[in-house]
């Protein structure tokens, strides 16, 4: 399943927590790529990631960080 991370609505986003969450939920994403995705997301551009394991936990983690997402596939 592909999820498009659209934006982060938190007033003071925690880059490290967002990066760690992306690394945990996305398939084939390491720490460096997760940090790059975090920078892109916080700059205002959407990011697409593939999630194949435990999607409900992924959605919960994204909502907790106030990240707006859209299910693509």
Helix and strand element order: EHHEHE
Please, what is the average pLDDT? 93
Sheet bearing the most strands, described?
A: 3 strands, antiparallel
Unreliable residue runs: none
Rg, rounded, reads 11 Å
Structural class: alpha+beta
Helix content: 40-55%
Total count of strands: 3
Distance between the ends:
5 Å
Quickly count the helices: 3
- Indicate the proportion of strand residues: 15-25%
Observed structural traits:
single chain; 73 residues; alpha+beta; 3-stranded antiparallel beta sheet; 3 helices
Structure overview:
The chain is an alpha+beta fold and 73 residues long. It has helices spanning 15-25, 31-42, 55-64; strands at residues 2-8, 47-50, 67-71. The longest helix has 12 residues, at 31-42. It is globular. It starts with a strand and ends with a strand.
Topology:
Layout: E1 2-8, H1 15-25, H2 31-42, E2 47-50, H3 55-64, E3 67-71
Antiparallel strand pairs: 1-2, 1-3
Helix pairs in contact: 1-2, 1-3
Q: Short description, anyone?
A:
With 73 residues, the protein is α+β, with helices and mostly antiparallel strands.
